[in-house]
Amino acid sequence: MRTKVSKSKIAALAEDVEKHWKAKGYELESRNRKMPSFRYSTPEGVSVVFDVGGDLVTISASISDTKSPGRSGDIDKGDFPHGLKDIAPDVRDPYWSK
Q: Which of 30, 46, 50, 74 is least enclosed by beta carbons within 10 angstroms?
């Protein structure tokens, strides 16, 4: 998920997300102290990431231990009729985006 977040609210959003993940029992994997960006892992082996780039916040999840042999391949922007927005929609929230 990608959403535009007001610069004045990024730290509050990061704090809320991190509190939620800690309450769920997720373990901290890494943190970037210059930006409120961090990665946690769930008990099921899923990595969840909160990342900031300018006024764009991305929250994503990935499975690091796959059961499928080999590499699945890269996603090419040309694979989607409307570019990568098909896999990462932009969301404007009335509270967080103002």
A: 74
